[in-house]
Every structure is written in structure tokens, then in C-alpha cells.
Amino acid sequence: MKLFLDQIYTILAAMRDVATAQGKQSLTDIQARSIKALYKYVFSHQDILALNSLPSIKPEQFPNYFSSEVIAEYALRFLTMASLMDGEIDHEKIKTLFQYAKAVDIYPHYLLQLQKTLENDINWLIRDITLKNLESFDLFPNLQREEDIDKWLFPYREHHDPALVARYERLQKLPKDSFGYGIWKQFKDNNYFFPGEAEGANYAFIMPHDSLHVLSGYDTTPFGELLVSTFTSTMLEKNAMEGHIIPVFYSFYLGIKINNLAGASQCKMNPEAFWEAWYRGSQMQINLFAHDWSLWEVAEIPLSTLRQKYCVLPKTIE
């Protein structure tokens, strides 16, 4: 989304305000790095940002810069990240975020998730986050019951598909620089089950996800999962925050278990890598979770060629 420079500075200043709970707390190193990294990687400014040059901002001033509801909601996404960037649920920071949302009179769903977190309504949170994640994918049918969702995620427990498994195994015979071989290696290196095996996840869910691992170059460590989900969120846009960013921050940064498939851990944050992943995903020219995307149509293409075709920008931060 295109923003004027004064809007960018206002977002950065408001992030600082949230990160310090309106001056009640010190700005941590990771928050300072995050604000600078957002300026560089997402807003594409190559000059070094001086934090002390940012304007002072109060919630009631926020609407002066964001009269459009669409742009205001976009700005709130960055403030939401500031409320979580220190790796903990901080009531004061989240309440500051809510003040900015109230000022522009919008209440996106991910703020409800944060409110439920403050209320410690974990059961509601887990169910909602799972649904919002799956609903962001075009291929997901409209399911509500947990048992129906579980059957959709793991359909091969009752109906094995040996022919599909064999098709995956044949990817090993492709050239080692091909995308298909990269997929085969991704599964073998991580001891994953292929779709078709009893414990394999649904092709419609797992194959686009692991394809994004291969395309983006992000590994399957907790932080790698955080990065690939961030990449996915801005590639999809649908339910980007409530279906991807909030779940992955909770699962892999805050250590809140959402489901058995993802698990939970508390990884070390690298804000530069995080914001680069955010930007890289936004530049993708195709949605791998769409009905018309198929691994089999592109398996033989060299990985480097497919990255160029899909506009997967080079990863610069390890």
C-alpha cells in the first residue's frame, strides 16, 4: 500500500508510543530495531532512520493522518506488531493499541483476539485462530466443528492413497535444481509424511505451505515457521493478521499452543528478518493456496526460474 511520508512517520511514531506504553516503559533494543527495519524493508527507505527525529504522537491525533478506513486498518497492523514485539502479552501496550483503534473508530478482528487474550479466554482464542487461519485459504471448505476440521486436515487416516505417495517419491528422480526435487527433499529432511500416507496432512493445506518454505528459503525451525507464515500472510492478504500473524506469534514467539500441528515454542526474534519476510510475501505474484495452483504443473521447473516467475525476492538476512 502506498503511503505519504508523513503517514509513514506517524505510523513509526505511534509504534514507538505503543512499544513504550505511552512513555511508561523504555524502548527496548528489539523494538527500536523493529521500527528501523519496518522503515527499511517494508517502506523501502534506504536512509538510516533516527528515532529521535520522529514526531510525538497521541491517539487522538491519529485520525488526522488516516481518514480512510482501509489505510487506518493497515496502519493498525504495524501498531499491533509493536504491542507484541517484545515477546510477551503486555496489557499496557495492548491497551495503548486499543486507544489508537478507538481514535480511528475501527475494530478489526485481530484486536478482538488480543482482547480475548487479555481476558484469558484461551478456548475461544484457539478455536477462532484455527478457523481464521483455514478460512484464509480458498481451498478450505466451510467447516465449523473441530472433528470435521480434523478430518479435512488429515483425510488419509481413513483413506490411504498409495498412488499419491508413489507420485511424491518419484520427485526424487527429478534434477536436483528442480522445484519438485526441493519439495521431496523438504519432506525427507524433516521426516514429514507425504499426503496419501496415514498421518500425512491434506494436500490442499500442506503442499502450498511447504512449497512456500522451499520458494522463500525459510527453514522449519520455530523462527523459520514464523517467517514463512509472515510471508504467507502478506501473499494472501485475506485474514493476514488474525489468520496468520497472530497465530504464528502466539505459537512460535509467545509460546501459546494453538494446535498440535504447529505446537508451541519461544524463538529468538530477528525483527529485520521478520519485516523482510513481510515485504517479500507482499511481492509474490501468485497465490499458492488458490484452486488453480498445482505442484505437479511446476515440479520440473528449476527452483531459481520459478522464484523469478513468481517474483520471490532474494532473501538477504539469514
What is the topology?
Blueprint: H1 5-19, H2 29-42, H3 69-84, H4 91-103, H5 109-118, H6 122-135, H7 146-153, H8 162-169, H9 179-189, H10 203-216, H11 222-236, H12 240-252, H13 271-282, H14 295-298, H15 303-310
Helix pairs in contact: 1-2, 1-3, 1-4, 2-13, 3-4, 5-12, 6-12, 9-10, 10-11, 11-12, 11-13
Folded structure, characterized:
With 318 residues, this protein is mostly helical. The chain folds into two domains: 5-107, no CATH class; 146-310, no CATH class. It has helices spanning 5-19, 29-42, 69-84, 91-103, 109-118, 122-135, 146-153, 162-169, 179-189, 203-216, 222-236, 240-252, 271-282, 295-298, 303-310. Helix 9 (179-189) crosses helix 10. The radius of gyration is 20 Å and the shape is globular. The two termini are 26 Å apart. The mean pLDDT is 94.
> Structural class, from helix and strand content?
mainly alpha
Low-confidence stretches: none
Please report which band the strand proportion falls in: under 5%, 5-15%, 15-25%, 25-35%, 35-45% or over 45%. Answer: under 5%
Strand tally is 0
Total of domains:
2
Q: What order do the SSEs take from the amino end to the carboxyl end, as H and E?
A: HHHHHHHHHHHHHHH
| Overall morphology | globular
Described by strand count, sense and barrel closure, the largest sheet is: none
Q: What is the residue-averaged pLDDT? A: 94
For the termini, the CA-CA separation is 26 Å
For the CA atoms, what is the radius of gyration? Answer: 20 Å
Query: How many helical elements?
Result: 15
Question: In which range does the helix fraction lie?
Answer: 55-70%
